Amino acid sequence: MAYTINTNITSLQAQEYLRTTTDFQSKTINRVTSGLRIISSGDDAAGLAIANSFRSDRAVLTQGVRNANDGLSTLQTIDGGMNNISMLLDRARTLAAQSASGTFTGDRAILNSEFQSVLGEIDRQAQAIGLDQGGTFAKQLSVFIGGGRANAGVSAIDNGSVAVDLSQSTVDSKSMGLKGVQAVGVAGTDIGSGATSTNVQEIVNDATNIADQRTAGFTELRFFGPGFSDSDGVTIAVNTQGITDTSTLVEAVNAAIESAGNGSTQAATAFRDAGVEASVVTDSSGRKQLAFSSSDVAFQVKANDLMANALMGNYTSSSNPTGKNLDTTVAAAGTLTTANTFAGTADIVFRFQGAGMTSPVDITTSVTSSTTVAAALTDLSSQVAANSTLKAAGITVTETGNGNNLTFTSDRGEKFDVTVSNDTANEFGMGSFIAGASGAFDYTTITAAFNDGATGTANFEFSFNGGASSGNKVAFAHTNGTSTASDLVDALNQAFAADAEMSAAGLKASTSGGNVTIESTNGTYFRVNTYSGTTDVGFGDSGATFTGNTVSNAPSDSAQVNAGGSAATTALTFSDLNYGTDDQTITVSANDPTGSQVTEAIVLKNDGSTTRDGRNIDSVIRQINQELQQTNNETLQKIIAVKVNDSGTEKIQFLSSLQSFNVTSGTNASGNGIGSQGTTDNAAVTAGGSTAAIDSQAGAASAVLTLADAVATLGSAQAVVGKGQNRFNFAVSLAQTQLNNLAASESRIRDADLAAEAANLTKAQILQQAGIAALSQANVAPQAVLSLLRG
Fold it and tell me: What pLDDT sits at residue 652?
C-alpha cells in the first residue's frame, strides 16, 4: 500500500459513508417526526402522485358530504312546510264540505272568507319553502357529492351528483288547481236572473240571436290554446234546449266542452288536456258573467254567433239581449250591371283571405261570351256556400242586385279580404288584374306576346301579395313611341328601378322571341293590370283601373277574451310581408324549470311556394304556433300567439301560463311584419284569474272535488321530496365509505412505519458515531509518514 499526504483516500471514503449515514438519519428523523414515509417527491414520486390524488378526492368527498347534508336539510325544511300545507288543505276541505251541505243555513260568505285566507296561507308557505311557481327550489336541484367515475357516456360529474327534480312539485294554490287562469265575459254586464232584459233566458229566447245560429238549437264558441290554435281552434256547440238560467247554461256549456274534448283530433286532445271549465262568476255588485277557467293553460275564447256574443256580455244594451253585430264586410268599388255578358272565355278567380283562414281560398267561376253577370253571380254564390272553409268562416255573398256593389260578409267578427283575377272587363267591379299561366291568381312571372305596331300610351298597375287595397298598388304610364318590345322593356325597367315598392319586389322586364316577360327576381307574388290606355302592348287593355275594395275593420264589439292571470305581451301590430325581401325572424324565449333559457327563432317569409307563411296575420299566427309546438319543448309549447281585436284593428298577442317570457321582433328592409322591429316585448302576468270559492253550494261542491285533486297533487310532491331525502342519505353513506377507503389507501402509500423507522434511527445513530470515530482515525493516518522521515 502506498502512503500519500496530498490525497487521504481513507478519509474521503469515511467522509462519504458519514454523509450517507447523516442523510439516512435525517430522513429517518423526518419520517419519525412527521409520521410520513414520503416527505418529498424524491422519496417516491409515483407513490406521491397516487397519494395526492387520493387526498384530493378526499377533499372533494368531504365537501360533497357537506353538500348532501345541506341538501338533506333543505328537503327536510321543504317536507315540514308540505306537512303544514297538508293540514291547511284539510281545513280547506272541511270548510268546503260544510258549505256544500244543502242543510247549511249559516252565512257561506263567512266560510268563504276563511277559505280564501287558507288559500293565501298555502301560497305564503309554498313561497317560503321555495316551491311556488317560479320559486327558488321549483327546478331540478343537482347536488355534487363526488366519488363518481365516467362510464358508458356519463361524465364523472353526472355520476358524482344526486339530482332531485322539483320542477313539477310546486305546491302553491295555482299548482294544485285551486287557482288558475280565467276568461270572463264583459265586465259590468249581467246575465243573471236579476237582470230584467239580459238574463240568460232572455238571451237564448231572442229571435235575432236564434236566427243567427249556424246550427238550429246550438250556439257556438271557439277556443284557442297551445295545441289547439290553428284556424278555427276548437269550436264547441252548446245545446240551448233547456237553458233557462246561469246554472243550466253552465251545465250545457261544460257538456259541449266535454264533447269537443272527446274528438279524434290532436287539437281536441290538447283542448281536453287543458281542462277548460265553464262557470258563472259574481262581481262585487252582484252581477253575473259567464267565465272559463283552466288551472295551467292560457287560452282565448271567441263568440261565433250573436247568441254566444250576448252570453259573453256583448249584448246590444241593458234593455236589448241581442248580441252585438259581428259582421265584417268587403264591398266592391264598382257597381254591377247584371245583364252584361263577359268578353270571351275566362276562368275568373276570387281569392278569400283572413277571417281566421290560415291559407287563401280560391273560388273559380268560368264564363263565356254568352254568360251574364247575373248567372256568374249565381254560380259564385253557390260555390261560396258549398265551400266548407268559407262556410266555417261565415262568409257569404250578400248583395248581387243590379246597380249594387258586390258585397261579401263574414259573421264571426274578423277582418277578411276578397280579390279577383282575370275579370278583364271588370264586370264584378273588383278590378281587372290579369291571370298568370294556367289561370294563376298571382305569380312571380308573366309573359305576353308584344303587339307589333303598338304605339301610344299604355297604363300599368301592379299589386303585391294579392293586394286588396288601392294603397297596395303602384301605377305608371308608358308612351310606346318606337313600337318595339325593347322600348317597352327599357321603360318598364326604368320604372321598376325608380319606384321603391317595385324595386323591393325585384321586378325585372325582358324580351325574347317577340315576347315581353315581367318577373320577380326575389320570389315576390305580384299581379298586373293594364287599363285606359290608347294602345294594347300585349297585356290587354281593360279600360278599368283598380280603385280598391272597401274592407271594413273587424267589429270592435266581438266577444274575444284572453284568459286573465296568464302572462301576455302587449298587442303587437302587424303588416303583411309583401315582398320577397321581407323575411322577419321572431325569437321567443323563456326559462325552463331548471332555470335555463330556451329559445325558438321563427322565420316568417313570403318568397317561395312552400314558405309563404307571412302573407297575412292568420298565416303568420298559424306558423308561429306550429313551430312552437314542433319544438317538443314543454316550456315553449306553453306559449301561444293569438289574434286580438284592438278597437277594430287586428293585432298579434302572445299568451302563456308561464310567469314570464319574451318575444323579439327582428328587422327587415321594408319594416313590414310583427311589432316594433328590433325590440323585445317582455310578457307580464295580466289581472284576473280564477280562485276556488265556497260562497255558494255549487262552488263548494266543486271545491270539494278540486281539493281532493289538490291532496293527490301534494302527495305526489311529498313523494318526490321524500325520495330525494332518501337518496341524499344513501349518497352520504356511500361518500363516507369512500372517504374511509381513500384514507386507508393513502395511509398505506404515504404514512411511515414508525417501528421500522425507530430501528432505522438507532441504526443511523450508531453508524454515525462509528463513522465519526473512523474518520478521526483516517485523518491521523498520514502521521505515519513522519516516522519514515525521521529514519
Answer: 95
Q: For residue range 723-764, what is the model confidence (pLDDT) as tens digits?
A: 999 988 988 888 888 888 877 877 777 677 778 777 877 887
Rounded Cα distance, 540 and 677, in Å: 41
Q: How confident is the model at residue 205 (pLDDT cuts 50, 70, 90)?
A: very high
CA–CA separation, 144 vs 531, rounded Å? 78
Residue with cell 315598392: 501
Is pLDDT at 559 greater than 70 in this prediction?
A: no
Domain end among 278, 306, 323:
323
Cα-flanking dihedrals φ and ψ of residue 269, to 5°? -65, -45
CB-CB contact of 522 with 506 (8 Å): yes
Residues 612 and 707 in one domain: no
**Residue 448 reports pLDDT greater than 80:** yes
Same domain, 129 and 203: no
With residue 90 as reference, give the H or E element that holds it.
helix 45-100
Over the chain, what is the mean pLDDT? Answer: 87
How far is residue 376's CA from residue 249's CA, in Å, rounded to a whole number?
Answer: 45
pLDDT digits (tens, 9 = 90+) for 362-421: 999 999 989 999 999 999 999 999 999 999 899 999 877 888 899 999 988 888 989 898
- Which of residues 291, 323, 355 is at a domain's end? 323
Examine the domain organization and report whether 83 and 22 are in the same domain: no
228 domain-assigned: yes
Q: What is the mean pLDDT of residues 608-612?
A: 75
Q: Quote the domain boundaries for residue 670.
A: 565-690
DSSP label at 686? P
Model pTM score: 0.78
HSE-up (13 A, CA, CB side) for residue 519: 11
- Whether residue 412 contacts residue 232, with contact meaning beta carbons closer than 8 Å, is answered with no
Region 620-630: mean pLDDT is 94
| Distance in angstroms (rounded) separating the CA atoms of residues 722 and 720 | 5
DSSP 8-state secondary structure symbol assigned to residue 98:
H
Tens digit of each residue's pLDDT (9 = 90 or more) over 96-113: 999 999 898 889 889 999
Using CA atoms, how far apart are residues 101 and 206, in angstroms rounded to an integer? 36
| Residue 152 CB neighbours (<10 A) | 5
> Do residues 120 and 172 lie in contact, with contact meaning Cβ atoms separated by under 8 Å?
no
In whole angstroms, what is the distance from residue 590 CA to residue 606 CA?
27
Q: Which phi and psi angles does 236 have, rounded to 5°?
A: -110, 140
Residue 558: the pLDDT is: 63
pLDDT at position 770 is: 82
Q: Are residues 651 and 772 in the same domain?
A: no
644-649 long-range contacts (CB < 8 A, ≥24 apart) are 644/300, 644/560, 644/562, 644/571, 645/413, 645/554, 645/555, 645/556, 645/558, 645/560, 646/571, 647/556, 648/553, 648/554, 648/555, 648/556, 649/553, 649/554, 649/573
Give the three-state DSSP class for 509. strand
Q: Are 617 and 572 in contact (CB under 8 A)?
A: no
Around 351, how many Cα atoms within 13 Å sit in the side-chain half-sphere?
A: 21
* Higher-scoring residue by pLDDT: 449, 40: 449
Query: What is the rounded CA–CA span in Å between residue 318 and residue 306?
Result: 15
Query: Do 407 and 317 touch, CB atoms closer than 8 A?
Result: no
